[in-house]
Amino acid sequence: MHSKTLAELAAALKNGEFSSEELTKSFLQRIQQHDGDINSYITVDEEHALAQARAADEMIAAGKAGPLTGIPLAQKDIFCTNGIKTSCGSKMLDNFIAPYDATVIEKFNQAGVVMLGKTNMDEFAMGSSNETSYYGGVKNPWNVDTVPGGSSGGSAAAVAARLAPAATGTDTGGSIRQPAALCGVTGLKPSYGRVSRYGMIAFASSLDQAGTFTRSAEDAAMMLQVMAGFDEKDSTSIDHPVDDYVAGLKQDLKGLKIGLPKEYFGEGLQPGVADAVNQAIAEYKKLGAEVVEISLPNSHLSVPAYYVIAPAECSSNLSRFDGVRFGYRCDEPKDLEDLYKRSRGEGFGDEVKRRIMIGTYALSAGYYDAYYLKAQKIRRLISDDFKQAFEKVDVIMGPTTPEVAFKAGEKSGDPVSMYLSDIYTIATNLAGLPGMSVPCGFADNMPVGLQIIGNYFDEARLLNVAHQYQQVTDWHQQVPAAYK
Ligand code: GLN
């Protein structure tokens, strides 16, 4: 059962090959058996999952099933789930039980989806290696000495090890695409505003977007179909029609114009990664696509601009964790100031504190113009680069990451080298564009991801472009030996 795609699982449930309860039990068993090795889940609530599965079986029996009814999924522990712990990977929220569901969770519930559990993540989604979680690091199922990427590393690792058929994630600067690449699964970050952020714990509100980890682009289309749509509870949600993503997977690629930004193939790119990506491009040419060299001249400014804007927004967002309303509270505070200081000092980890301090500094009266305002101007230049590129091409392709999964501990003492893991993904978030990472080969025996960037709300095309490649290659079907 664990080797089937979402489309295959849906068909099997409909034909009565097995029930949702049987399917859910089999995944719960796999989690019990294997998750000790990779630490991809923070919370697994078996009773809750099985109750949802039985309810789904009733929906199926009554002929009321939708495409995902009865399928168990894993949810990143950043989405509020009514009655079940939502930690965001932090000691600060270790005791937090949300009194409501995030819109994404509510949509899955309505669709009859079963929640297997909440996946591990970097604390407050800050990181590229999943080493900053209060619940311990996540390991890459392809080699447990290496990291799965971050911040949605738990979701990526769970899907790669077949401990969930698919999972959600969030991507602020690369946190879906980078771990998808490092774990050899398909990752989709939709356009900013496509999926509601209501009930998704905020890191950097102008960049955060929810998306998917799946075995294939077809599965991503099935999940996005449920997740996408306008939500009046999220003021940044955009009222734009939702395409039929699954029906859109049948277009051939003749005449598709692919832009290759020269800045994504330069210094710092591991040769094995470049080879795999170039082979994928060659495959696209065989499918009838045309390749055009383009330039995104302000690419080198994306990491510096991001590391002003994201910390600035996080310093504001995380001020709500004050030891008063919810989350961690220190023992026996002397007075209010002591309560704030110690609750925040004890509840947040080092990376989160680093970001809050950078953000507070960048927003302070004397430095606002020099840092925050300048970063916002650069952000506009980066979006304009993409706008010009999309006048000439339909999609942009390149590597998702400069290198394959690195060893745990290798970059944790060097924040700047860690931040550079997202050098090819961050610009997309600054511009608000959709992007995917699709498995396209191996280097040093570790998976490589091909990044595909689309124009605003062009998810249907993006998914089809990924799907056509997956019809002629089988990189996305590779499974780490220990989890077959
Ligand atoms: N690695 C980036 C960061 O640490 C991106 C994280 C994310 O996308 N949530 O900010």
The appropriate CATH architecture of one domain is Alpha-Beta Complex
CATH superfamily of one domain, by name, is Amidase signature (AS) domain
Small molecules held by this entry: glutamine
Structural class: alpha/beta
Shape: globular
Number of helices: 15
CATH topology of one domain: Amidase signature (AS) enzymes
Q: Which range best describes the helical content: under 10%, 10-25%, 25-40%, 40-55%, 55-70% or over 70%? A: 25-40%
* CATH class group of one domain: Alpha Beta
Helix and strand succession? Answer: HHEHEHEHEHEEHEHEHHHHEHHEEH
Order of strands across the main sheet:
4-6-5-10-11-9-7-8
**What ranges have pLDDT less than 50 throughout 5 or more consecutive residues?**
none
* Largest sheet composition: 8 strands, mixed
Distance between the termini: 11 Å
How many β-strands, per DSSP? 11
Mean pLDDT: 97
Please compute the radius of gyration using only Cα atoms: 21 Å
Beta percentage is 5-15%
Task: Characterise this structure.
By secondary structure, the protein is an alpha/beta fold. The protein has a domain at 6-251: Amidase signature (AS) enzymes, CATH 3.90.1300. The protein contains 15 helices and 11 strands. An 8-stranded mixed β-sheet has the order 4-6-5-10-11-9-7-8, with helices on both faces. A 3-stranded mixed β-sheet has the order 1-3-2, sandwiched between helices. Strand 2, helix 4 (103-110) and strand 3 form a beta-alpha-beta unit. The longest helix is centred in the last third of the chain and has 24 residues, at 369-392. The chain is globular, with a radius of gyration of 21 Å. The chain binds glutamine. The site of glutamine has 13 residues, from loops.
